[in-house]
Amino acid sequence: MATSVETAAEHERILREIESTDTNCIGPTLRSVYDGREHGLFVEKLDVRIRNHDREIEKMCNHHFQGFVDSITELLKVRGEAQKLKSQVTETNRHLQDEGKELMGSMEELQKCRVQQRNIASTIDKLTHCLPVLEMYSRLQEQMRAKRYYPALRTLEQLELTCLPRAGEYRFCSIMAENIPKLRTQIRDTAMTQLRDFLESIRKHSDKIGETAIKQAKIQRSLDSSVSSQPRALIGRRRKEAMMMMMNINGIDGTPVSEQDSGILDVEDEEEQEEEEEEDVPGAQDLVDFSPVYRCLHIYTVLGLRDVFENYYRKQRRKQARLVLQPHSNMHETLEGYTRYFNQIVGFFVVEDHILHTTQGLVNRAYVEELWELALSKLIAALRTHSSYCDNPNLVLDLKNLIVLFADTLQGYGFPVSQLFDMLLEMREQYGEILLKKWNITFRQVLDQDNFSPIPVSTELEYKNYTSQFPLQDPELDKLPFPKKLPFSEFVPKVYCQLKEFIYACLKYSEDLHLSSTEVDDMIRKSTNLLLTRTLSHCLHYAIKKKNVGLAELVQVIINTTHLEQSCHFLEEFISNITNVPPDSANATKLYGMSTFKDARHSAEAEIYTNLNAKIDQFLQLAEYDWMVALQGGGTSEASDYLMDLIAFLNSTFSVFTNLPGTPVEHATLPGKVAQTACMSACKHISTSLMQLLLDPDVRQISMGALQQLNADVKECEGFARAGPVAGFQGDTLLLAFSDLRQLLELFTQWDWSSYLADYGKPSCKYLRVNPHTALTLLEKMRETSRKNNVFAQFRKTDRDRQKLIDTIIKQLRNLIAQQQA
Question: What sequence ranges are listed for the domain Exocyst complex component EXOC6/Sec15 N-terminal (predicted)?
């Protein structure tokens, strides 16, 4: 029961909600009814509620029905009155129409006249606006046919912005408006084509432009060096160039001068003029018509595409710069290759410099400096690579002059060129190496052609000729009558002249490098030092060490190097005179020629000693001593044949030193000193070699007869020393070379062991130069001989006593040696 009451209340609530809620929102409410189980009961209640509402509506309609009937009755009455009013109005309208027909005719005619009048005025106004359009378009067509594109673009701009908007919308105006972008594109493309032709043309002719600019800079430099003021002709020509440049830029009427396709002007007439009058060299800008650039720049500026044009121009010029800076693979072979390379670079930057100064912003200083930095890096790298292949000093010198002229030309246009001069200083070392190689060949040729003999002079003219080539100052030689001989060979004046030629070659490279006199002097002196210490020194050593060089030739080399050494201070003065730097200045580099020639002289002396000793060794190899020969009783042994031949050779050899010319001259002491040293060296070498023969380990036994033969040979050598083969030795100085061997032989031949052992180590010892080791070695060899040769020595008391004596002496010598070592 409670459930039906709740259901009824819920249904009542839903009905109220349906009555009070919009019909669009009753969906959820009805769904709640269908979700429940009492929807049939709800439908019954809904029907009851509908019937109640119907009864209420019916009551309301019954209440208002009488008023509706009264309104219908009044409406019927009004309809009759309305019919009457309609017929009256129709009649009145008919009378009005009949009476206004004539007026309407007049008014229609007046209206037609007014329309015609307005149309005529409008036509006149439109024609007034259209005629300028047509006239301007006609002018535009003429300008296009005449290829006057910049005025055409101005006309086009005026036509589009001023005339066409005033003319109105007509078909021909529409056609013109449609053609305006096409005409702009045509003008732009044509201007760009001319610019491309211009760029291609200057790329092909950049070498001619550069050649002209370099030639002009060369003339300017020569004029600056010859006179301090500029000639009027040059001033007039510069004014002419300035006027032409201004006309090129602005034109007479404020527009670009040339409206024709142009690029490089015809230069053949200019070349003919140069042949006729070399001084009248056209300016580099005179060869180029820049109007395509200016025209294209103006056109793109008007079109609002200046940035596009600037980027395109710079991009194309960068590409051309890379092509210009790419050298040919065989550029290093000839100077023409370098010249063409430099001309192209100069031509490129002359054009860019002109563009920089004659246009506003097409290229700026930063862009040009960037290109120049790129060019400098690639140029220097290319020059370093290609110049390294060059081995011709004349080509390197011409290249240096070309680089200097190239640098001066571009420096005149405001480009920094210090790096180029730094590179030239680097090339200076390479140039010096090439010169050294060339002079190395020259010196060797001079040495190979020299006869290493004093120069014979027959006449005063010949004598002056040689003294003009070499600074010979010898009063004694001047007093000698003709014919006479100069102390040196042809090598000396030739080498001295070549040294001066080398200095001149170094000086040529230092010119125009903007160096101070001190720097030039320092460079020349350092290069000359390299020539002396390295090249000439090697050549002299080559000549000295060469095979088949006789002692006379080596002595002449010594004399030659002595005179060259004495001439070094003349070379110092020569360098100071050409560089205007005093030789005694604080920073002046000294020449190392004296040490070079001293080393060569010492080398020649050493070679004399070596050769002489080698010849002595050849004689000593002929020695055939019989070490087991028996002692000859009574008679004296004669010297060996090989030794007699050796002594004869030495006498003839040292006569070469004695018979050298020029004894009264100052240098005459030189051969004497060399001969003395050589003679002493030869004697010492003979003594040492004979000692080595005695002590040779292969010789195990030596008899007293062999010592007697050796003693005879040593006496022969001492006789040679006493004879004085070379003058200048005091007393028996030369005999000292044989003193070691002499004392040793006397010790054994006289068998004076008691004195040796008793006085050993004392200054008054008779055998002071005999070494115990040497004596022991030789005595052991004699003991072995005594043992093997005297098989029956044990049966003879004398031999037994001698053998015991030898053993005793050996024992004492060993004790003496042990005491020394302790």
Answer: 45-214
